[in-house]
Design brief:
heterodimer, A: 75 residues, alpha+beta, SH3 type barrels, 6-stranded antiparallel sheet, 2 helices, B: 679 residues, alpha/beta, Rossmann fold, Helix Hairpins, 7-stranded mixed sheet, two-stranded antiparallel sheet, 61% helix
Chain lengths: 75, 679
């Protein structure tokens, strides 16, 4: 298991766990990131927020907060 | 329809950002809408109405949020409104092109006891992606009217009105069993235990099952509500059940999405698509090129906004030309000179300013509304997130700031694309610190006069001070305007690019134009009138005006800050129009010419002989102090008015005005005293 910000551009992954207070959790799940959600990293460059595809849309997520999301990379 | 029993039914619009809520709201209410703030809150409140078959329907546009949790003021307001029973039917919008994610709001609504309809909006986008949605099947499963919909297309509205009629007549609630049954496996039956402890009929519009779900999600506001409504014994029971639950939010959300997946299983047909950023998007979100591209597009947008503005400005420029014929006609019928002056100066100048402003505001709203509508603004938000986040702003606040290098009026108008009121006010407060184009009509002239070859250094210093000013202003105003809980990092959807819906775009701009016109005219007229009274003299010479006498009286005070009475009056006039500074100096130092026309006339040019007059009566430190004071003063009267349009708050407009007045005088003082050490 790795952190979401460690997924490289072009890799696919499945959300395994989300940590943090209930405030953070409910923000993250309301945009669709729950355990089991499949994502594909579109852009993980420099200091910019992460860009990835999940649940039919492109999601932008702050780099710092993406460290609280654990994922399993899929081949 | 005659068989609707409620006198003035209220429809509340509920949906995630980008679900098309405002398009629907504008289409329904048109110009019959009021925009204000929720009482005591920094969140915009939009209400309106429409009449159909003799019944008046009230429409409340609830603040955009991703769910019904209590994480932000927007979400709490939305929840409280629904709980209060003010809505007769809640209209939930979902984005059909990404149903699985956008139905989360519907899943969060499960258990609220208010009739609802579900609008599957953006159906045209979904179809273009090869998706088909079986609305009838969804309606059968959910138990409430479900309508395929395109909010930007008037042809779809008959189905909408029918669905509202059905919902009001049949008062059907959303089916809940298929979701709540899933909760039973959470934390060893915690959900069922909580459900038993809840008041049987719920609280207000919140059913027992909705309350129990929110308790599992560690919702503090609901826990407080429960504490107020339950006997102490039962509340203790609730607390003890909750102590055994961990990560409730993740658990319930997991089931909500499972429920959505089951709903969509045989109702949504689509082919897997290949996912990749388009070429343009790879550039627009590039770590090196994303920012320069955004700035370039904003600058091009600023230039483009003059195209629709030009016709207005041409018409506006004809207005002052009416002055001659009108005054001739009035003196022919023997009207007193003061009336003639009042009409040709105050009235015509106000009309001229407002027409020119409306043209520009219209242009800015059209161009940047277009960039927002097609989805590009979300990319600007993305690349500038880290920069603007330091102030608690979203990345797209960079747009009004870049526009303010051209014109602060356009900057203020551009904040229309910012959806949070607090961020809007903060962005405008910061944008005032950015030297607008008019600054460069004055600063280079005066600096080269006084400092010769060193003039460019003055310009560099102004940019340097602007940077510090921006930072301090951002921190000071941000502390009041942005709540700590809203300073969290970026989580947002980057919507796909849409073809612009011109009809809906124009509607949303025109909706407020009449309102803006009348408000702007009032502000400009009142200030122009006061300024006219202060600068009025029967003979037309400055010496007999109130402003002149006042300026001379307080010169001992203004000298302390580095102003002669002439530069102080020119500084005051520069709040009305920045270009006025030179014209007023000319009128005062060279004598002759009315102060009013010097301020609101053509302006900008240096009168012949003014240079030697200035050099002989101003010291270099006083000149430098004046340059800084004018550069960082309030930008102009129309920008003040435009700030009031967008913030809709007299309190905050005056606060910003007072802040810039005080800080520019303090800045002048600092410059005067520090420069005094060198010259």
């Amino acid at each position: 298991m790795i952190k979401l910000n460690e997924v490289n551009t072009g890799q696919k992954a499945v959300v395994a766990d989300v940590c943090g207070d209930s405030r953070f959790l409910s923000r993250v799940v309301s945009i669709g990131l729950t355990p089991g959600c499949k994502i594909e990293m579109l852009h993980n460059e420099g200091n910019l927020p992460l860009l990835f595809y999940g649940r039919d849309t492109v999601i932008a997520l702050n780099r710092e907060e993406s460290k609280d999301i654990a994922v399993e990379v899929v081949a | 329809m005659s068989n609707i029993l409620i006198k003035e039914p209220t429809i509340a619009l509920l949906g995630q950002p980008n679900s098309g809520k405002s398009t629907l709201f504008n289409a329904l209410t048109g110009a019959r809408q009021r925009v204000g703030n929720w009482p005591g809150k920094t969140v915009e409140k939009k209400e309106g109405y429409y009449d159909k078959d003799g019944v008046r329907f009230r429409v409340a546009d609830l603040p955009g949020s991703y769910s019904l949790s209590a994480n932000s003021e927007e979400e709490i307001i939305t929840r409280d409104f629904i709980a209060s029973g003010q809505a007769d039917v809640v209209c939930i919008l979902a984005d059909s092109s990404q149903l699985s994610r956008s139905l989360f709001m519907l899943a969060d609504y499960v258990g609220i006891q208010c009739p609802a309809i579900l609008l599957l909006n953006l159906m045209d986008v979904a179809e273009a992606q090869g998706k088909t949605v079986d609305a009838a099947k969804l309606e059968e499963k959910l138990g409430i009217p479900v309508i395929p919909f395109v909010a930007a297309d008037k042809k779809h509205y008959d189905k909408f009105f029918d669905a509202i009629d059905r919902a009001l007549k049949e008062k059907k609630l959303l089916n809940i069993g298929s979701l709540t049954d899933k909760y039973n496996s959470i934390g060893g039956g915690a959900y069922e235990k909580l459900l038993e402890l809840m008041p049987q009929d719920g609280i207000g519009n919140y059913s027992a099952s909705w309350l129990a779900t929110k308790l599992l999600e560690e919702d503090k506001a609901v826990l407080e509500l429960i504490e107020e409504n339950l006997p102490q014994e039962a509340y203790k029971g609730v607390k003890s059940v909750l102590s055994s639950v961990e990560n409730g939010v993740l658990e319930t959300a997991g089931y909500k999405f499972k429920w959505i997946d089951e709903l969509l299983k045989d109702a949504l047909v689509y082919k897997e698509r290949k996912i990749a950023l388009s070429k343009f998007d790879s550039l627009a979100t590039h770590k090196t090129w994303g920012k320069p591209l955004a700035i370039l597009i904003i600058l091009l947008g600023l230039i483009a906004s003059f195209i629709p503005a030009t016709p207005f400005m041409l018409v506006g420029s004809l207005v002052p030309k009416l002055g001659g014929p009108i005054s001739a006609a009035l003196s022919a019928i023997g009207a007193p000179q003061i009336i003639i002056d009042f009409i040709t100066q105050v009235v015509l100048v106000s009309i001229y300013s407002v027409i020119s402003m409306i043209g520009f505001v219209f242009g800015v709203n059209l161009v940047f509304g277009f960039l927002e509508e097609v989805g590009y603004m979300a990319r600007v938000s993305y690349v500038f997130d880290r920069t603007m986040n330091k102030f608690g702003l979203q990345g797209k606040s960079v747009m009004p700031m870049v526009v303010s290098f051209g014109c602060t009026i356009g900057g203020a108008a551009g904040t229309r694309v910012i959806d949070s009121w607090g961020q809007k006010v903060l962005t405008i407060a910061m944008a005032w610190a950015i030297p607008c184009a008019a600054t460069w009509a004055i600063v280079p002239v005066l600096s080269s006069l006084f400092f010769g070859a060193w003039a460019p250094l003055v310009i560099v210093a102004i940019f340097f001070v602007a940077g510090i000013h921006l930072f301090i202003t951002g921190k000071l105003f941000g502390a009041k305007l942005i709540r700590d809980e809203d300073r969290a990092g970026l989580i947002m959807e980057l919507p796909p690019y849409h073809k612009p819906k011109w009809g809906a775009l124009f509607r949303s701009i025109f909706v407020r134009t009449g309102d803006i016109l009348s408000r702007a005219f009032r502000v400009v007229f009142i200030v122009a009138f006061i300024f006219w009274l202060l600068t009025y003299s029967a003979s037309g010479s400055p010496e007999q005006t109130l402003l002149y006498k006042f300026g001379q009286k307080i010169e001992p005070i203004t000298m302390f800050f580095g102003f002669t009475w002439q530069t102080f009056l020119a500084y005051i006039s520069s709040m009305v129009s920045k270009e006025a500074a030179l014209g007023v100096l000319g009128a005062l130092y060279l004598g002759g010419g009315s102060l009013f026309s010097a301020t609101l006339g053509s302006g900008g040019a240096m009168a012949a002989g003014l240079d030697s007059a200035l050099l002989s009566s101003l010291t270099a430190p006083a000149a430098l102090a004046f340059i800084f004071a004018v550069s960082f003063n309030a930008p102009c009267l129309v920008a003040i008015s435009s700030t009031y349009q967008e913030t809709r708050s007299i309190k905050w407009t005056l606060r910003i005005l007072l802040y810039y007045f005080v800080t520019s005088i303090l800045l002048a003082f600092l410059v005067f005293r520090i420069a005094g050490l060198f010259f």
